[in-house]
Amino acid sequence: MSRPRTPVAYTGAVPVFADCVADTWQIDPEAIRFAITPRTKAIMVVHLYGQPCALDPILELTRRHGLS
């Protein structure tokens, strides 16, 4: 079990993974958009290799869908 998945599974939630952007290896905001369902409660991002994710579009998704 991967580390980011462990705390999610511990709460009883079901993690849904989204694809990454090929040139940065960071989570793809467009892939997140397609992964959101009515059952989605939160978005958990992981910053890789000291590089932050593109948080502005991800935060816009959280506001639009009322997520954490």
Characterization of this structure:
The chain is mostly helical and 68 residues long. The protein contains three helices and no strands. It has helices at 5-10, 29-35, 55-65. It is globular, with a radius of gyration of 12 Å. The two termini are 23 Å apart. The model has no long low-confidence stretch (mean pLDDT 88).
Percent range of helical residues: 25-40%
Number of strands: 0
- Share in β-strands: under 5%
> How far apart are the first and last residues' alpha carbons, in Å?
23 Å
Low-confidence segments, given as residue ranges, are: none
Mean pLDDT across the residues is 88
N-to-C order of helices and strands: HHH
Main β sheet profile: none
Tell me the structural class. mainly alpha
* Count, helices: 3
Query: What spatial form do the alpha-carbon principal axes imply?
Result: globular
Gyration radius over CA: 12 Å
Keywords:
68 residues, mainly alpha, 3 helices, 35% helix, 0% strand
Describe the protein's topology.
Layout: H1 5-10, H2 29-35, H3 55-65
Short description:
By secondary structure, the chain is an all-alpha fold.
